[in-house]
Amino acid sequence: MKKLCFLINLFLSISLYSQTYQGKIVLNDGNVITGMVEMNYDTGINLINSNNEIAEEIPAENIKSAEIDVDGEIQRYVYLESYYATYNFSKQTNLKIRMMQILSEGPKVTVLEYRPTVGLLTMTELTYLYLLKTGSQRPVMYSSIQRGSIIKPNYKRYEFKEFALEFFADCPALIEKIASEEYDARESIEIAEMYNNCN
Hints:
Layout: H1 2-12, E1 20-27, E2 32-39, E3 44-48, E4 54-59, E5 63-70, E6 73-84, E7 93-105, E8 109-114, E9 124-133, E10 140-148, E11 154-156, H2 160-167, H3 172-179, H4 188-196
Antiparallel strand pairs: 1-2, 1-5, 2-3, 3-4, 5-6, 6-7, 7-8, 8-9, 9-10, 10-11
């Protein structure tokens, strides 16, 4: 059931761009802005006036977080500096601020999703999960998700086991499941949830 809720959130956020929503923006200086907004991908957020025109463009470097109402569902986003790679996550480059949706939060780690491209879902779409440890300022790449209208989500990561054994090393019960390959990239969400509940 929890995984189904994650998947619903993923699909709800596919067509964010070039649409307006009631939203709340928290700036890095602590100021809060509310009103109609247009999500402008990694570059920032546009404030929209009553004439449906752009009243102000807020750059990503000034934004801490944002919330938007999408058909009654509140979606939350953060703007964080991070690296990126399409396949081999150990060779990440292109450090910049990216817009990421919050999928799950816990006492130890937050799961974020990043979309490297803009557009509607066609046959397939490839997005990426990041992990942000509590107290850290920079998320790390976790796994990729390939999904589409005729296929179920497929979670992958090159050398997932090696990464997970190191990242979740302070949770012995979880490490045992990863080492035995009971858990792999396909359980990316469940692994993060178990880590947050690990004593």
